[in-house]
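I'll show a typical protein example:
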Amino acid sequence: MKVIEGQVWTFRDHIDTDVIIPGRYLRILDMDEMSSHVLEGEDPIFASQVKKGDIIVAGLNFGCGSSREQAPVALKHLGVAAVVAPSFARIFYRNSINVGLPVIVADVEAEKGDALAIDLGSGMVENKTTCKKFKIQPFQDFMLEILEDGGLVNHFLKNRGND
């Protein structure tokens, strides 16, 4: 798997799925429009300023709350390449893997605007701004395959008929 490199956006502990994509926007079917509201209550400029490949570094329990799949889908649609946090809500973690959004369990020291490089193969995150390195919780091989294929549906379609 390739190295994920991007600029850091930081968020606090306990960011729930209603903060990631507020419930009042869940009926919007256009993903560009829905995604324009991602994390607006935490950082009003995030959705308009995030760039493809940027990385979220968050606090504890990222993605807690409801099991809405729109939260990781909207983050991925915006171009977020990965989310790094010391812990994730279990259903958000699984939904993220299922849609092909890498969620990295690690306690990483980073500030907004730092450059981060995540090597899922070696299990390391490097803050290229501070030159500090951090070990991550490794992924199981099947989860790496799902991420490499861009999510569970793509993984299934790729492997259909290989049984």
Remarks:
- The mean pLDDT is 94.
- The chain has one domain: 4-159.
- The chain has seven helices and seven strands.
- The beta strands are 4-10, 55-57, 82-85, 103-105, 115-119, 124-127, 132-135.
